[in-house]
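Protocol step 4 of 6: structure prediction from sequence.
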Amino acid sequence: MANHKGLIIDVDPRSHENNLAHRTREIDRERLIVRRGQPFSITVQCSGSLPPKHHLELVLHLGKRDEVVIKVQKERGDGDKWWFNQQRAQDEMLLTVHSPSDALIGQYRLAVLMMSPDGRILEKTDKIMFHLLFNPWCKDDVVYLPDESLLEEYVMNEDGLIYMGASDYINSIPWNYGQFEDYVMDICFEVLDNSKEALKNSETDIEQRCDPVYVSRIITAMVNSQGDRGVLTGRWHEPYTDGVSPQKWTGSVPILQQWSKAGVRAVKYGQCWVFAAVACTVLRCLGIPTRLITNFSSAHDVDGNLSLDFLLNEKLERIEQNNNDSSWNFHCWVESWMRRDDLPKGNDGWQVLDPTPQELSDGEYCCGPCPVMAIKEGNLAVKYDTPFIFAEVNADIIHWIVQRDGQRRKIRVDQATVGRNISTKSVYGNQREDVTWHYKYPEGSKKEREVYEKAGRRVTEPTNGSVEPTQLEISIKHAKPVFGTDFDVIVEVKNEGGRDAHAQLTVLVTAVTYNSLHRGECQRQAISLRVPAYEAHKEVLRLHYDDYAKCASDHHLIRVRAFLEASGESEPIMTEANIPLSMPELLVQVPGKAVLWEQVTAYISFTNPLPVRLKGGVFTVEGAGLLSATEVHVKGDIAPGQKVSVKLSFSPVRTGTKKLLVDFDSDRLKDVKGVATVLVRKRYSRHY
């Protein structure tokens, strides 16, 4: 062996060319990052005096302790093996390496061995490292998605919109997924390496990393920190003083960076959209097509009976129960695209994955992947977690009044509220796409009822059973109020009957969180009223900022519950409305042209809409390819009606259409969002 030292002079991984061909250049230009099922080429430079009849061998090592070793075959095998071919040109060898479409994802170390005819190693170089990702562009990969415009959005787009609010008042916040930001890919693999499975037995864990079902399930467990070394701790109410309020985040990258830098210690705090957004970043980065979904009026059915039972006392206050069923104004999860070879036919395509820690699944706080098609068809035996997700979009809501003697009176059955306006960002821009029809047949249709019965759900009787239908109807109307203003709520009682009605109307106004935690009573009114036959009575409630500000949650959500008891009617009637208070506008402008590596200035302005002074104002600015999260503090207080302006300069680091996201916080007003689109161009053409 000594005679031939220095035979291999240099190995060039050809990162620029390979990464461009494998659509990974956004992740890194210097390191080799490739996708499985697609060949890549490296060159081996040799000295002129090569021994006769020598040959090259390639060996792959995977895992921190080389847990998996793969010998690369010299010629094409049966499609499920690594193989390579070589071409000689002067003193260079061009090696083309072919990975199977079901190869293990991860960081590989490639050893190139120069072998003598009798099988001795003449020389060896093993310094080449590369990462292998899932390949949704490869038709044999189980994550293959044939539509290029969908891949542009669900793998390559770093900017998203997350829908929030209420089903009849949907708003959105911008989010920076940042899956191609520096070192995010390394942190994604760090997430996998810190799972319980990896820590228990790294070899069996690595050997299952060919399977997106396994990998995505690990990610839903690892994005939350319940019972493992996960990324985010959930918290659904103030105070957040020992961390960051979930509303303040505008992107996944600072969360992932903080978790990694702190030695994989959980970041505080997340709520459902933050968990879902971080999972979306990790899944897109690893090459699994993923989109973020919002389900409005989402059921959390704890006891699995496919209905939510809400108990109220005679003051209309919610009675806490052991089962803690709840209905969330909205709930976010993700869908990832994959073939389900582990399930019967008909379960491929979009799969629900929910990283918010709610219920245990096989002893872990994870949820999915569950085929969306199985939910639509009511096939609850299909794994994973289908009964829980089916209830989230289909459960009935039953309200009961518990009287002083402990007797329950059923006052309202609602079969149509849960699972409405299921939303995701369109692939064609910043519009909302409604995907409710993927999850369920039209409400009230024959097919929908069939699916319910198949799912083992009890089809509940109408609200009033055999009682004569009531002649009174009740509804709540409101404007779309802005947080900081006074506004009116109108409760209308309609008498459809032929006789005058005498009734007692109780209206209760409370502040709640988006997942229905009660945060305090703002107002209560009890009114005796007479409604003439075939007429309507309107009761107007004025809600003042001072009344709701002291109890409003950081979700700025007001719930109005109206309860009507009419003399001569055996059943009371009740209705509810959730009123999201919209946030004021934050203006972000980036004038002039944005050029790669050249300074550009953003101008941010905001007017205080509240009747009180704001203290401790701070703007947080970030954007994938533009700048990492940066704070700009406001000097002094901001008086009511005062406009405050700040400017911030930065140099874009990547070309293309980018989003600059801004969040404003102060003592009395938090999480005001703003966004600007920045088109970053090259100054001149450079060859990469």
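Step 5 (inspection) to follow. The radius of gyration is 30 Å.
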